[in-house]
Structure formats: structure tokens, C-alpha cells
Amino acid sequence: MSTGADPKTLPITKEYEDGYERIFGKDHKPTRGTFIWDSEKMTFVPIAEYKAPERAIDAPVMAGRFYENTCAPDAEKTDIGSRRKHQEYMKERGLTNPSDFKETWAKQEEARKAIRNGAPIMDPERRREIGKIAYEVEKRGRRNR
User: Fold this and answer.
1) CA angle, 13 as apex, 11 and 14 as ends, to 5°?
2) In angstroms, what is the C-alpha Rg of the chain?
3) pLDDT at 1 exceeding the cut of 50
4) pLDDT tens digits, 20-62
């Protein structure tokens, strides 16, 4: 409110009563409680009277519904029609989802770009291997002299 006063403590004025009657009708009393939208009745109903729709297929949030009636692309057409079955199938065969490696691939792509642009390779294992191979090539060259 612009006055800064608590609206619960303000007196009911003639303007308020006129506006209330214009919106809700002359003999309408305020109703207290918790209400929920009923899409069948197309109105708000008290939460105690609300009955959820029987068909959950039309629910706005459907987690895991895309697993229904799915099978793996193997020769046996293994049923992976639930999250649990899908996870077991993947675990048994040592498989994973590519989305598990998004950050890894992004980091590796940055490293590849840096190497392509001439940055030094900072892998100590690779450096050791290259040094070892260079030493062996040089050693063979000495023997052949």
C-alpha cells in the first residue's frame, strides 16, 4: 500500500464495499481455504473436494515415459522399457551415455585447439615416450656406424 500501513488493519470503507459488491455480488461472503484448479469443472475447487484425473498420461511432467516399449538395438532385442532395465543393460555391457562425457570432451577439444595453434604439449608421459624412442633411434644409429 502507498500509505505503508498493514492492509489487514485498515477499516472497510464505502469504496471497498462498492467494489466488492460489483465484483462478487451483493450477498457474497469471503471464502477462506486452499483451492486447486479443476480442469474438468473449469473452476477452482476446495482442495478437499478435488479429484485428480484418472489418466496420468496427460500429466504435464512425465519422467521416464520415453522408456516405454523400448528395446535395445542388439540381436536379442533386449527389453529396456524402464530406467532400471536400461541401467542394468548398460552396466552389463560396459556401456555409458555420451552425455556423461560432455565436460570431458569440451576440455579435450580446448587442448586439441591449443596444440593445433602451436602450444607446447605439456604431457610428461608423452614427453618421456618421445625421449625414449629418440634415444633408441640414436643408439641404433651409433651401432650401424
Assistant:
1) 165
2) 36
3) no
4) 788 877 787 777 888 888 888 888 899 888 888 776 665 566 5
The burial class, CB within 10 Å (0-12 / 13-18 / 19+), for 40 is exposed
127, 121 contact by CB (below 8 A): yes
Check residue 7 and report its DSSP letter.
G
Residue by residue, DSSP assigns 41-99 as TTEEEETTT----S-GGG-S--TTGGGTT-B-SSTT--B--SHHHHHHHHHHTT---GG
Cell of 24: 462478487
Distance CA 76, CA 110 (A): 40
**Residue whose C-alpha is closest to residue 100's, from 115, 113, 85, 87:** 87
Q: 107: left (phi > 0), else alpha (psi -120 to 50), else beta?
A: alpha
Model confidence pLDDT, tens digit, residues 96-128: 888 888 888 888 898 889 888 988 877 889 889
